[in-house]
Design brief:
alpha+beta, 60s Ribosomal Protein L30, Chain: A, 2 domains, elongated
């Protein structure tokens, strides 16, 4: 793929200003260095952003700009924000940077880095008559490793990724998972001659070989369904939303098992583990439970004199959520292990402790589903149909149902962020 690679710094470029043509600035320097077909020109994001006018006054500060540029916040610690940009990149401060820019100003990432790379590629080809690849680079930190490294945020004229699955290694073994981030490799190599303090904003990387059609840097972004590290644990707690409509597909049983494992770590009194969970992922079982609950509700509501129209609406509302969820999880609590008290107040408090542990288990279940990218909501339904729920789900009388959790794939689109919380109403330090 790459044999005898050479990295040549492109020096002597003037200070780039808004409206400048990056390709026109690069072309004479590339000609002096003998640029030829097949070369890859690496260009720092900073000069691309400057040329495209992505320079803003610092104003309220870098953190405020980072939040504006973010699709979602992945992690936060003090002033440091790890965010996903609208492009899908996950990086510090959403790529908002104060280096190599006049005091009081910040640079933002290009609106369309792949488009920027293609525009520069075309401009160089028209000026020099040679076909080159272009990679727009930025420096990113890396999870679990110290230090920053150049990565590709824009790519044109070469494949950003090389999918080697189905090919064989030198031992003749089939490769099953190997996808090479070629554009990132080129970007990282260029970083050896493009230091932040060296005033070298471009480099020629020569000798890159790739037998694949060109592809954009957007292909480097890992799809959400493949991402095992979508959020920090702290933000995952506040990011969970109650979602009552679900996308197509089902919920793997392994995901339910992981969620129940998490639920069973909830605090409980007297070293007990007083919970059980019934997961219904087959239509006949779900329908049997919903039918039993609907009959019980109807009987109670008719006895209270509620009109048929109101009864039908209430049942339909419940069925619209529980009936469309790919899986229903019914949490249970039992009071075995509770201390027996003659004092009525203490006996009541003992029962409340067990119920509180049931709520904690449900919350842990919901958070574990969210951590796996699964939408969910808790509905109180089975609380009012204890006998019917026990009968349909074959549970002993010692068990009490604690509502139901509807779960399924996330629907299309991203839920809006939660509104800011005024802690003045909820927190007091003594």
């Amino acid at each position: 793929m790459s044999v005898g690679v050479e990295i040549i710094p492109v020096e002597g470029l003037p200070e780039v200003r808004p409206g400048d043509d990056v390709a026109a600035l690069l072309a004479p320097k590339l000609a002096q260095l003998g640029a030829r077909g097949g070369d890859v020109v690496a260009v720092t994001q900073k000069i691309v952003s400057k040329a495209e006018g992505r320079v803003v006054p610092e104003g309220e500060g870098r953190t405020a700009w980072a939040e504006r540029e973010s699709r979602r916040i992945v992690a936060r610690r003090g002033d440091l924000v790890i965010a996903e940009t609208r492009h899908g990149f996950v990086c510090a401060n959403a790529g908002v940077d104060a280096s190599n820019i006049a005091p009081g100003f910040l640079t933002l990432l290009p609106e369309d880095p792949d488009g920027s790379a293609e525009s520069i590629r075309k401009g160089i080809e028209q000026s020099l008559g040679v076909s080159v690849g272009v990679v727009v680079t930025d420096t990113f930190g890396r999870t679990w490793r110290r230090g920053v490294v150049n990565v590709a945020i824009g790519c044109a004229g070469l494949p950003a990724v090389l999918d080697l699955r189905g090919t064989r290694d030198h031992e003749g073994k089939d490769l099953e998972a190997t996808i090479v981030a070629l554009a990132d490799e080129v970007a990282a190599a260029s970083g050896l001659v493009m230091g932040k303090a060296s005033h070298v904003p471009a480099a020629i990387v020569r000798g890159v070989r790739a037998d694949a059609p060109p592809s954009p840097a957007s292909e480097l972004v890992r799809p959400p369904e493949e991402d095992l590290f979508r959020e920090s644990p702290l933000l995952s707690i506040s990011a969970r939303r109650t979602i009552r409509a679900f996308g197509p597909g089902g919920v793997p049983r392994e995901a339910v098992e992981e969620a129940v494992r998490a639920a069973c770590t909830a605090p409980a009194p007297h070293h007990t583990r007083p919970w059980a969970f019934t997961a219904l992922d087959g239509e006949p079982a779900k329908r049997a439970l919903l039918a039993a609950m609907a009959a019980a509700w109807r009987e109670d509501l008719e006895r209270d004199g509620v009109s048929e129209d109101v009864i039908a609406r209430r049942i339909d509302r419940s069925d619209a959520v529980l009936g469309t969820a790919p899986v229903l999880i019914v949490p249970w609590i039992r009071f075995r292990g509770a201390h027996r008290y003659e004092d009525e107040e203490r006996a009541h408090a003992e029962q409340e402790m067990f119920l509180l542990s049931g709520g904690a288990a449900i919350q842990s279940l919901l958070l574990a589903l969210h951590a796996q990218g699964i939408a969910s909501c808790w509905i109180s339904s089975t609380l009012f149909c204890q006998e019917e729920t026990r009968a349909v789900l074959s549970m002993d009388d010692e068990w009490s149902a604690l509502g139901a959790v509807a779960a399924g794939p996330m629907p299309a689109g991203t839920p809006p962020p939660r509104p800011a919380l005024d802690l003045g109403e909820h927190l007091r330090f003594g």
